[in-house]
Design brief:
Oligomer: single chain
CATH topology of the largest domain: Aminopeptidase
CATH class of the largest domain: Alpha Beta
Number of helices: 10
Largest sheet: 6 strands, mixed
Number of domains: 2
CATH architecture of the largest domain: 3-Layer(aba) Sandwich
Strand order of the largest sheet: 1-2-6-3-7-18
Number of strands: 19
Mean pLDDT: 95
Helix content: 25-40%
């Protein structure tokens, strides 16, 4: 029988940051399938100059249009780790798994490599001859940068013959039937050249914050916003550099700031000629604060946080100004395009992508089957909602009944240093998956 903890440690130790591709972890995932006696394959997709890898295992009868198949989907990529020094539980190495009691630390431990291990373990020992309906396991790619793997799966016909989908994300073994939508934007703030005069000096500062998942920005401290505030408080006669953020869906914990300050004792250095006016950034910051306050009025009580949230996740100087990246997490029925309208007055906005919200059927077959599985495994039959966006929204849009489920803690844990999963939840997740597979793929009476 597979050792869940050791298998997860192997996946954690294999880096798979979304933008760099996931070939190594895909091969490790295939080796895990082989150890479980399951035949898997790797399919590749070339997207935006990066080769990505999907791990796929098909069991049961061949899938055809209209079949009531079950899809088990888990992404294998992770966000960037940020500053390795902040990973104190793993000795400064985000990819070195470390066990402390019931917690297993490491990048991707909860989000969401542990879920893939649990799903593979649920297939171990399964007699394919007992399967009456198609069963497909997919380890997807680039979920953290636009659900690219799930989009590819739908576009290439990988969901045909699949009627229901269990999507892996940490939920503490609660069945998630609804989640928020997501949109990513770039804002260009144009800044004319500054005129600092002959007497000025260069000042610099490294602003620090605290990272958090952008679905719960109140749990972090945004270093980019802190840098904008610092720049304006300094009465700068121009700015030279303001750069921070590693992923838009992560509250940035560091930002580099360099600016010019009037100083009668100093001659302006040569780089003063490159300084830009800070007034447009002040106007953006004022508009951003007012806009975020307005988002709190767009609410849906089934979520926590109940209102629409946004995160300023990236900042970098570009020719003629500043490029800022931010995301918006919408509640069902709200439109990101309409919500961002006030920011057009202070920046040129470009929408990079949108991901649909999930609003599942509270009386669907999959949700009821999961409730039975939870009870069979000694758990309380619990369902709920999630403030993040997942691949389940896309699958639901493609016509599948999709539910999010997984071991581990999400809120206040993922997309930040010292991410961990709860070891005692791993075998429970495996057993829940086994029960669902038995009911939906082996039981002739369930449709």
């Amino acid at each position: 029988m597979l050792d869940l903890t050791r298998c997860l440690e192997r996946l954690i130790a294999t880096p798979s940051v979304s933008s760099l591709g996931n070939g190594d972890v895909a091969r490790e995932a295939c080796a895990l399938l082989d150890a479980a006696g399951v035949c898997g394959r790797i399919e590749t997709a070339r997207i935006d100059g990066v080769t990505h890898h999907a791990v796929i295992a098909d069991l049961g009868p061949p899938a055809a249009d209209g079949d009531p198949g079950l899809l088990l989907l888990t992404h294998l990529d992770t966000v960037p780790p940020g500053d390795p020094a902040d990973w104190t539980a793993t000795g400064g190495d985000p990819w070195r798994p470390a066990r402390d009691g019931n917690r297993l630390y490491g990048l991707g431990s909860a989000d969401v490599k542990g879920d893939f291990v649990c799903k593979v373990a649920a297939l171990e020992g399964l007699d394919p001859a007992r399967l009456r309906r198609p069963l497909r396991l997919v380890g997807s790619f680039a979920e953290e940068i636009g659900l690219l793997g799930a989009r590819w799966l739908v576009e290439t016909g990988g969901t045909r013959g699949m009627r229901r989908a269990l999507v892996g994300e940490p939920s503490e073994l609660v069945a998630i039937h609804a989640h928020k939508g997501y949109a990513k934007y770039e804002a260009l703030v144009r800044c004319p050249p500054a005129h600092p005069g002959a007497r000025a000096r260069v000042c610099s500062e490294q602003l620090r914050g605290r990272s958090a998942h952008s679905s719960t920005p109140h749990l972090g401290q945004n270093a980019i916003e802190a840098a904008l505030e610092r720049l304006l408080a300094a009465d700068a006669v121009g700015w030279i550099e303001l750069e921070g953020g590693t992923a838009v869906n992560k509250v940035p914990d560091a930002c580099t700031l360099r600016w010019l300050e009037a100083d009668p004792r100093s001659e302006a250095p040569p780089e003063a000629a490159d300084a830009l006016d800070a007034k447009p950034l002040a106007a953006f910051l004022d508009a951003w604060r007012a806009w975020q306050a307005g988002l709190e009025r767009v609410r849906d009580a089934q979520f926590d946080p109940a209102h629409v949230v946004s995160n300023l996740g990236g900042a970098a100087r570009v020719p003629g100004g500043m490029r800022l990246s931010f995301d918006v997490r919408t509640v069902p029925g709200s439109s990101a395009e309409a919500l961002v309208e006030p920011l057009h007055a202070v920046a040129e906005l470009r929408c990079l992508r949108t991901n649909p919200a999930l609003g599942g059927d509270p009386d669907g077959v999959l949700l009821r089957t999961l409730a039975d599985a939870q009870r069979a495994c000694g758990l309380e039959a619990r369902s709920g909602t999630k403030a993040t966006c997942t691949e389940a929204g896309l699958l639901a849009q493609a016509g599948l009944e999709a539910i999010v489920f997984g071991a581990g803690v999400s809120v206040g844990n993922v997309h930040r240093p010292d991410e961990y999963t709860l070891v005692d939840q791993l075998p429970l997740a495996r057993d829940v998956y086994r029960h669902v597979i038995e009911r939906l793929c082996c039981d002739a009476g369930t449709v």
